[in-house]
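Query form — protein Photolyase/cryptochrome alpha/beta domain-containing protein

QUESTION: What is the three-dimensional structure of this chain?
INPUT:
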Amino acid sequence: MNASVNSLHWFRKGLRLHDNPSLRLAIDGSSTFRAVFFLDVDSLNEINISRTKWRFLLDCLLDLDSSLRKLNSRLFIVRGQPIDVFPKLIKQWNITRVTFEYDGEPFPQRRDDSVKRLLESEGVEVLVSTSHTLYDIEKIVELNHGNVPVTFKQFECLISKLRSPNSCVPDVNQDLFVNCKTPVENNHDKIYGVPEYSALDLDEEEHERGEWVGGEDEALRRLGLLEKEVAEPKTDTQQEKNSPFPKSSKLSPYLRFGCLSVKYLFHRMNQIYKEVHGKPAPLSVHLPLLWREFFFVVASKHPNFDKMKNNSLCLQFPWEEHADQLEQFKQGKTGFPWIDAIMRQLLSEGWIPHLARQAVGCFLTRGALWITWEEGFKIFEKFLLDAEWSINAGSWMWLSCSAFFAKHSQWMCPVGLGEHLDPQGSYVRKYVPELKDFPADYIYKPWKAPIEVQKTAHCIVGADYPQPIIDHQEARRECVDKLRAVYQNLVSKVSSNVGLGHNAMHWFRKDLRLHDNPSLCEALTNCRTFHAVYILDPVSARAANVSANRWKFLLDCLTDLDKTDICVTKLFQEWNISKLTFECEIEPFGQRRDVAVAVLGEEHGVEVISKPSHTLYDPEKIIDSNDGEAPLLIKTFENVVRQMGPPEKPVDAVNKSMFKGCICPVSSDHSTKFAVPHLDELGFQEEDVTSGELWVGGEQEAIKRLTELEEKVLVGNLKKSVEGLDALRPSRTQLSPYLRFGCLSPRLFHMRLTKAYMKVKCQPPPLSLYRQLVWREFFFTLASRNPHMDKAVDNPLSLNIPWEENEKALDAWKKVRV
Ligand SMILES: Cc1cc2nc3c(=O)[nH]c(=O)nc-3n(C[C@H](O)[C@H](O)[C@H](O)COP(=O)(O)OP(=O)(O)OC[C@H]3O[C@@H](n4cnc5c(N)ncnc54)[C@H](O)[C@@H]3O)c2cc1C
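ANSWER: The structure tokens for Photolyase/cryptochrome alpha/beta domain-containing protein are given below.
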């Protein structure tokens, strides 16, 4: 005979009967069932949570108890901490199964692990299901090879590979309870009843319910209203009624306490979208829910997500302490009516719209007071009904520009934004009643009102309402300067603990140098880990029709580059790459490959940035300047280039300081896995190399040669030797292999020779001096639009000359035996 199952469902969030898989697991197949919520009433006053929020929770618990009663069950409010009380409950009720909803946040995870260990050691079966998020967080991390995605884009790419969130499970109803009973004693209310509101020491005024009534019933009622609005949109309903803020669902507190299932919301919205538009909803329709999900995923592996210290995602800004200003901000007494109204709404009602959160968040941090976002996080944690540890901390980091941002966010003027959204100031009049009689002209800047106006409005600034705590324009300027300083020193200011930024990979191809390498610099901007990669496949290297001399030159270049420091999809995943940079390829085959790589990047949530630096000018710009066509004659080309003016200056060489704060992970097997190969690995012997010391590859050699050339120009000219200015002529520089492999940037070459020429001639050189460089440029531009540049057939540039085949002669020519 099967032993009977006595189960206990541990409610934490997820305070509902609909779409609650772990609750169903508790009831299904059990003989007895108890629903428990742990609440330490004695410590209510010690926990830093507003009364409004406690009241909302009590609403939810009462609602849950009432729904369970309808199913002949009850909710058991158990006093104490789960880890202390569970052993007693298990014995008392002979519990054999415990179920709860999965919580991915680091602290609850630790708590749940301990409880699970404890229960299992007592022989209790523990069943856990995910229902607070759309997806299983661990699956997303697994899909990303054990790493959490660090950008929203990366996250979006990951979830686009997953199937739509699972369907909802059926509601808990009478049928499920057919064979299952909840033993309820007569003294249930006394021992396990939901506490009275009076336990919260709420005074009468606080008892009054505003707009926010907790519970599943209310959540589903609100969802019903939303569904109606989405199904029959009215054009004039963009604005919230009696509010200056844009309309939104106002479902966040219900999602926070789990009175509403996020999956249920998702699927309902999908269904309505399909009914209205006749096609399935794209994921983007759920953008706010995806941001919610993103923050849960990122925070799940960052235990210090709510702090700056030891938070590898957060930029370390030099925030300042202004205790008095912080206190005035908390109380809604900053002297800025717009800010004060929002803060007072938060304190009294426990919820403010997204734009209002942004307005006060900007004011507290990067827009005025320059106080750390951690303080804002704590205030919101205490007062917001919807405060979720992950979303709250993530949003504060985002808002203060400390993480998850692409560009500087907009400044929100504490005066102008209110004036713009609510010119009459009704919102301020409601929440800052001292100012209710102020004329609209001064409602957002009462300190500017003449004293007569203040008297008439029965509010003297400085006595009845505070003077502004700062000069907001001045504060803004200072904040902008501080932000700029932070960004300028971004790399060095990033936490030494691997700060915010990209896991960047620079793919070296024809730019084997550190000087004038804009895409390499781009990789190092805002970079936390950096990998420099050259992709070389020894098998195809052997098959490629390239001489030993050329391979040796390339290996020299790579060795030279490696001295200064260190497929594609595998690397993206292995190194959790979020940004890939490379030099733009000009030639058609390379262009096609780059497009394919950009698509791969997109698929993997990797930002791909490429910049031109293999030529003096961006060939695309030359073509643009010639009405969209590559110039076919060198004369035309020269004219176009002349009109474009001198090429851009080279960018600064990559140096040590650019690597500050950025880590280049080098594994212990680096030399076996990633080192520059030897020639014999490519199938050549040292003897095959006949170019000897004449052609040593690499940037160092290129710069040495360039410097020698400059000296020849200067010294040779002084001595009136044969070299002199003639040495400038590129045909004589012997730098072409270095330009070919990008060990030397053409722009650096151009700039240094120009300077040398000007020293001698005291005037800029004519274009003709660079004739060979110009020809190089000309051919690149032509080839960029001609995929058959290397063939006689199908090549619109090549005359069809009837060349003849003569293998014998060709062979002799190749072997230098003509
Ligand atoms: C500084 C700051 C702190 C915040 N703290 C929280 C928080 O603790 N809890 C919270 O739920 N939201 C937080 N938000 C995000 C957002 O302001 C609220 O989710 C939104 O205002 C809730 O209103 P709504 O339900 O009408 O949202 P809607 O726009 O109708 O969106 C539907 C749901 O999507 C989610 N959502 C919407 N916007 C975001 C967002 N930007 N990021 C993450 N999820 C979002 C919420 O669950 C919301 O209920 C914060 C925003 C800022 C700027």
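ADDITIONAL NOTE: The CA atoms of residues 19 and 261 lie 6 Å apart.
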